[in-house]
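C-alpha cells incoming
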C-alpha cells in the first residue's frame, strides 16, 4: 500500500473536518484545502475579482510562489506549517480604518499560539508573530486590497525544523516548545479568532478601541515603547520611538523633540533588547 503522505509527523489537513468544525460559527462559508498552488493570496484574489462573497478560507499544503510583503517570498516545506488566505469584504469598516484588518489577524495568531500552543507569543508591528527568548519570526501576514475585498494571507511555521527555515531569524512552533503542533486545532482557533475580532470590528464600524481590539492587540505588541529604525522602499531610514497605534492601525512614532510621524507600513527593527518579562 502506498502511504498517502510520507512524513507521519506532518499529516494532511482535512477540508471536510475544518468545514464541519467551522460551519456552526456562521462566518466561514467555504473552506478548501489544495495540495499545491503558487500562492493562496493570488488564488483568492482571483476569486474575489470574480465576485465571491466573504467568508472563504483557502489553505494550501504547499506553495510554490508564496508571497511576502514588497515582493518578498514566503517559503515553507509541504505540510510543515500553515499557508492560508481569507477573503473579507469589509464594507462596514471605513477605508481609513482597514489597517486594523491585518493587525487583527496577527492578534488572532498570537492568541491561538498562546491558547493552543501554551507558549508566550509576541507581535512586532504590524503583524509578525515572534516566539521564544530570541524573538524568532514564526508567522507573517500579507493583506492585499482587491477592489472592495481584502485578502489576508497567513504563513506560520509549525513543525518546521531549524535546518528547513529560510533565515536564522525564523522559528517555528515546534522549536519554540508549543504543546500543540497539530495543524487542525491551530487552523480552527485561528479562523474562529479572526471571525470573532472581524465581527467585533464590523459591529463597531471600524472603531478598534470601542470593540476591545486595540487593547488586545497592544497586550501582545512589543513594538510600543521601543526605540526602532524603519526602512521603507525608496525612502531614507527613519529612527524613532514607537509610542502608540492609532485608529487606522498606524504606528505612531516620536522622531525628535515634539516631532511625531505616523507609519502605515514599513519594516521595523527593534533596537533596544526587549524586556524579557511576560506582560500578560
Ligand atoms: C510576511 O512578509 O511575513 C508575510 C508572509 C505571508 C505569507 C502567506 S502564506 C499564505 C499567503 N499566500 C501568500 O502568497 N502569502 C501569504 P514579510 O514581512 O515581507 O516577510 C518576508 C520575509 O520573511 C522574507 O523575505 C524572508 O526573509 C522571511 N521568510 C520567508 N519565509 C519565512 C518563513 N517560513 N519563516 C520565517 N520567515 C520567513
Amino acid at each position: 500500500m502506498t502511504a498517502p503522505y510520507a512524513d507521519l509527523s506532518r499529516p494532511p489537513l482535512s477540508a471536510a473536518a475544518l468545514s464541519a468544525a467551522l460551519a456552526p460559527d456562521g462566518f466561514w462559508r467555504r473552506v478548501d484545502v489544495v495540495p499545491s498552488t503558487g500562492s493562496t493570496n493570488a488564488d483568492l484574489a482571483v476569486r474575489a475579482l470574480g465576485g465571491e462573497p466573504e467568508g472563504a478560507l483557502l489553505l494550501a499544503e504547499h506553495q510554490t510562489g508564496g508571497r511576502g510583503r514588497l515582493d518578498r517570498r514566503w517559503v515553507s516545506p509541504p505540510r510543515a506549517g500553515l499557508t492560508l488566505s481569507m477573503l473579507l469584504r469589509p464594507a462596514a469598516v471605513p477605508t481609513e480604518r482597514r489597517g486594523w484588518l491585518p493587525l487583527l489577524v496577527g492578534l488572532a495568531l498570537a492568541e491561538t499560539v498562546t491558547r493552543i500552543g501554551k507558549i508566550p507569543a509576541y507581535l512586532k508591528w504590524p503583524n509578525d508573530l515572534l516566539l521564544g527568548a530570541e524573538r524568532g519570526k514564526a508567522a507573517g501576514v500579507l493583506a492585499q486590497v482587491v477592489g472592495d475585498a481584502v485578502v489576508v494571507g497567513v504563513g506560520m511555521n509549525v513543525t518546521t525544523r531549524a535546518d528547513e527555515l529560510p533565515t536564522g531569524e525564523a522559528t517555528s512552533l515546534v522549536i519554540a516548545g508549543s504543546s500543540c503542533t497539530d495543524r487542525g486545532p491551530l487552523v480552527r482557533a485561528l479562523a474562529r479568532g479572526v471571525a470573532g475580532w472581524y465581527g467585533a470590528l464590523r459591529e463597531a464600524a471600524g472603531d478598534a478601541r470601542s470593540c476591545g481590539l486595540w487593547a488586545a492587540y497592544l497586550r501582545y505588541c512589543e513594538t510600543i515603547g521601543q526605540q526602532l529604525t524603519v526602512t521603507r522602499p525608496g525612502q531614507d531610514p527613519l529612527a524613532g520611538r514607537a509610542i502608540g497605534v492609532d485608529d487606522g492601525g498606524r504606528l505612531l512614532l516620536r522622531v525628535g523633540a515634539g516631532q511625531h510621524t505616523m507609519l502605515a507600513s514599513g519594516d521595523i527593527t527593534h533596537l533596544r533588547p526587549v524586556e524579557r518579562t511576560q506582560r500578560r
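note: The helical segments are 15-22, 40-49, 100-117, 183-203, 213-220.
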